[in-house]
Design goal:
By secondary structure, the chain is an alpha/beta fold. The protein folds into two domains: 53-181, no CATH class; 187-302. The chain contains twelve helices and six strands. It has a six-stranded mixed sheet with strand order 3-2-1-4-6-5. Helix 10 links the parallel strand 1 (202-206) and strand 2 (226-230). Helix 1 crosses helix 5, helix 4 crosses helix 7 and helix 5 (105-125) runs antiparallel to helix 7. It is elongated, with a radius of gyration of 26 Å. The N and C termini lie far apart (53 Å).
């Protein structure tokens, strides 16, 4: 989006100044080719994501205007100080206005992006909802650039020092408040919790996304778990370039489970293993500190199998 909007602004600037020359077009083309080259490694995944069914966006709501404004404030002003977010927003808006007034031509491109990007995302979301904090945050670089330019354009050194001190103080308070409720990546703790139950056992993971994450953290900790990813009906073509080491269907998973006696089952959607695999039952649920409610880790066994340990025990 940033390169696209930058090209729109550049075309407008060249047309305004009547300076569309062969040299200008050549320089713009070279700049775009460099950007495409740096982005090339992600092109394939982007295309696969665009080919996926609408279901992948079903969790994103169609944003009414007040909701979109609130999300933008949360993405660009992630302060945890309640209504003071609006005070900080007004302060930043004043700095941006001052930067545009003082710098004019130099500030026109980032100002155009700051205004145009949320509008484009909002309009597009009326058809296919994509207006979430992460998409807005990705467009925040020009916003912070303008805020910094506004600070530098203040009339006196003392005014700049006061404004910077205010910004740093607000950021420090916000960070301290956020730290109390921050949520880290759970997969390292998932690996540790599984190892405490069965350090070299079979682990069945629902979905390629969760399977790849668990494999990655298992490699980091050099664990000996045998991780098998359970293929489901959910379309996960975006992971096709990152295939898990062991990829099984429900029938193969049940066969592995019967051969091994029991396994750890990891489900990040909270669907019972009986629904995904079939003839199995849960021996116990494994508690993982800091894990969200949607992710369930259980010790399971095939129906009719003779467990090597009573329910609730460990090897």
């Amino acid at each position: 989006m940033l390169p696209l909007l930058a090209n729109v602004w550049l075309l407008w600037a060249l047309m305004r100044d009547r300076s569309i020359t062969r040299s200008a077009v050549l320089h713009a083309s070279i700049a775009n080719l460099i950007i495409l080259g740096l982005w090339a490694w992600w092109v394939r995944i982007t295309i696969l994501q665009l080919m996926m069914p609408r279901l992948n966006f079903s969790w994103i709501v169609k944003p009414p205007l007040p909701y979109a404004i609130r999300l933008t404030l949360e993405a660009w002003f992630p302060w945890e100080i309640g209504v003071s977010r609006f005070i900080v927003a007004a302060f930043a808006a004043g700095l941006i206005a001052w930067a545009v007034y003082k710098w004019r031509e130099r500030a026109s491109l980032p100002a155009f992006i700051v205004i145009a990007a949320p509008i484009i995302f909002f309009v597009a979301s009326q058809s296919t909802p994509i207006y979430v904090p992460r998409t807005i945050f990705w467009m925040s670089a020009p916003f912070f650039l303008l805020v910094a330019a506004g600070l530098c354009a203040l009339p006196t050194r003392q005014a700049i020092q006061i404004a910077v001190a205010i910004a740093l103080s607000i950021s420090a308070v916000n960070y301290a408040l956020w730290l109390r409720t921050s949520f880290g990546d759970p997969w390292a703790e998932v690996v540790r919790s599984i190892e405490r139950v069965d350090p070299d056992g079979l682990v069945l993971v629902e979905g390629r996304g969760a399977g790849l994450a668990l494999e990655r953290y298992c490699e980091i900790s050099r664990c000996k778990l045998q991780i098998a990813t359970l293929r489901t009906t959910k379309d996960e073509r975006w992971t096709s370039g990152f295939a898990p080491k062991i990829d099984v269907n429900p029938e193969e998973a049940l066969s592995m489970l019967r051969s091994g006696g029991r396994a750890i089952f990891v489900n990040w959607l909270g669907i019972p293993p009986q629904t995904l695999i079939g003839q199995v039952h849960i021996l116990k649920r494994i508690e993982v500190p800091g894990l969200s409610d949607g992710v369930v880790v259980s010790l399971i066994e095939a129906d009719g199998a003779v467990s090597s340990a009573i329910a609730g025990s460990t090897r």
